[in-house]
Design goal:
heterodimer; A: mainly alpha; MetI-like fold; B: mainly alpha; 9 helices; cell membrane (chain B); transmembrane helix (chain B); transmembrane transporter activity (chain B); ArtM/GltK/GlnP/TcyL/YhdX-like (chain B)
Chain lengths: 232, 218
């Protein structure tokens, strides 16, 4: 039988872990989303100069485990004078790692917009910045929400790794409870359920956002987005 | 970094071998189980679909580190003694089964219904249809996401260092604590992971090019 009383007794540790997981994930994902946009924008703005370095960065993120990056930041950092708290190393690890994936997602979004639209915007005397805000981003938002949501979910799940560099997150505190009470199933299952809940919330928000963006889109633009070859 | 690679390459290579053995065993086992689970997910019977969906949801919806700890600590609790490396392979297999099943399910849904109807008309049994008609096409269709999954599992196998399997990550930790050069050591490990994954991506791209002919999905 599951011992619910045990979980209630240990609610302090579980809530502390939940709080730490939430804020570290939030900041980490924010960093990943913004740094990824910067990388994608750099690559788009000047492919000759930034194309190769950004592509390398993306490959490194895809090809190496997050755990290595966390260890590099937390244990390797001090050798080059970079002393980070475990929590900050966690935020930076998730952010730097996620940025590589988000850069690719944004790039896919940018590329899906027919060039003709940008040329038309330029012909009409709309500034590049204005074209970005008014033409490109609204259209690509719809396309990048599903893979973006997916990536956020992956990052939340990978955030469990920060427990290994001694952050008191959900996973670490669950292990603490296991070691204190010698009960394995209750703490781990409870924490698994909490992760599941966070992820379900992100997934639902993603669907909702996707729906809203699809409705807001003028029909014509939606059609253009669907058949880029027709006007490019 | 190069110094670490040069001085410690026998241990590092041994660690890398363990990483590869664990990951590839999990991938291979997960391939078989994943195909079966994909059939379960696309079954006609709700009683089959529902538990398969629940399995997929749990293993895709929780962190793999948590799954690893749960398997590793739970099994002895219920009287099953298991070596860390076997617990590692088991967890990675159970995890990748769910992800691969989802990849195959989406592949199966891309096979035109007409083919299956035609097979039924021709008197080919459901099982034969799956084996001879559906799956050969699905494997070709799903090669890119499958490669991603293999790379993901290789990366996730670094977690099993937590339960004291001496794979690449664990070996690097040992070297780092002995040489007091964590930065160089972990960079060396990162390069090894990256190299393996780049090679895998190349092989997959090559296979994809070679097998791109002969698809009948129109």
């Amino acid at each position: 039988m599951l011992d619910i009383a045990l979980l209630w007794e240990m609610r302090g540790l579980i809530l502390q872990g939940l709080w730490n997981t939430l804020w570290i994930c939030f900041l980490g994902c924010l960093l990943a989303l913004s740094l990824g946009l910067v990388l994608a924008a750099l690559r788009l703005a000047n492919p000759r100069l930034f194309g190769y370095p950004v592509a390398c960065y993306v490959e490194i993120c895809r090809g190496t485990p997050l755990l290595i990056l966390l260890f590099l930041l937390y244990y390797g950092g001090p050798s080059i004078g970079l002393r980070l708290d475990a929590e900050i190393a966690g935020v930076m690890g998730i952010g730097l790692y996620g940025a590589g994936y988000f850069a690719e997602i944004y790039r896919g979004g940018f590329k899906s917009i027919p060039k003709g639209q940008l040329e038309a915007a330029r012909m009409l005397g709309i500034s590049p910045w204005h074209a970005l805000i008014r033409v490109q981003i609204p259209q690509m938002a719809r396309l990048i929400v599903p893979p973006g949501t997916n990536q956020l979910i992956i990052l939340v799940k990978e955030s469990a790794l920060i427990s290994i560099i001694s952050v008191d997150d959900l996973t670490k505190n669950a292990t603490t409870i296991v070691n204190q009470t010698f009960q394995v199933i209750e703490p781990y299952l409870a924490v698994a359920l909490l992760y599941w809940l966070i992820i379900e919330l992100i997934a639902r928000s993603g669907y909702a956002l996707e729906k809203r963006l699809a409705n807001r889109q003028p029909r014509q633009a939606a059609q253009q987005g669907a058949t880029p070859h027709a006007n490019g | 970094m190069f110094e670490i690679l040069l001085n410690h390459y026998p241990v590092l290579l041994k660690g890398l071998t363990t990483t590869m053995v664990v990951s590839l065993s999990a991938i291979a086992l997960g391939l078989v189980l994943g195909v079966l689970l994909a059939f379960g997910l696309t079954s006609r019977y709700r009683l089959v679909r529902w538990p398969c969906g629940l399995y997929r949801s749990f293993w895709r919806g929780t962190p793999i580190l948590l799954q690893l700890l749960l398997v590793y600590y739970l099994l002895p609790e219920i009287g099953i003694e298991i070596a860390p490396i076997h617990a590692a392979i088991l967890t990675l297999t159970l995890n990748t089964t769910a992800f691969q099943a989802e990849i195959f399910r989406s592949g199966i849904s891309h096979i035109p219904a007409g083919q299956i109807e035609a097979a039924r008309m021709a008197g080919i049994s459901a099982w034969q249809t799956r084996r001879r008609i559906i799956m050969p096409q699905v494997f070709r269709l799903t090669l890119p996401p499958l490669t991603n999954e293999i790379i993901t599992i290789l990366k996730n196998s670094s977690l099993i260092s937590v339960i004291a399997v001496t794979e690449l990550m664990r070996v690097s930790e040992q070297i780092a604590s002995r040489t007091f050069q964590p930065l160089e050591t972990y960079l060396a490990a990162a390069v090894l992971y990256l190299a393996v994954n780049l090679v895998l991506a190349r092989i997959s791209a090559y296979l994809e090019r070679r097998m791109s002919g002969g698809l009948a999905t129109e």
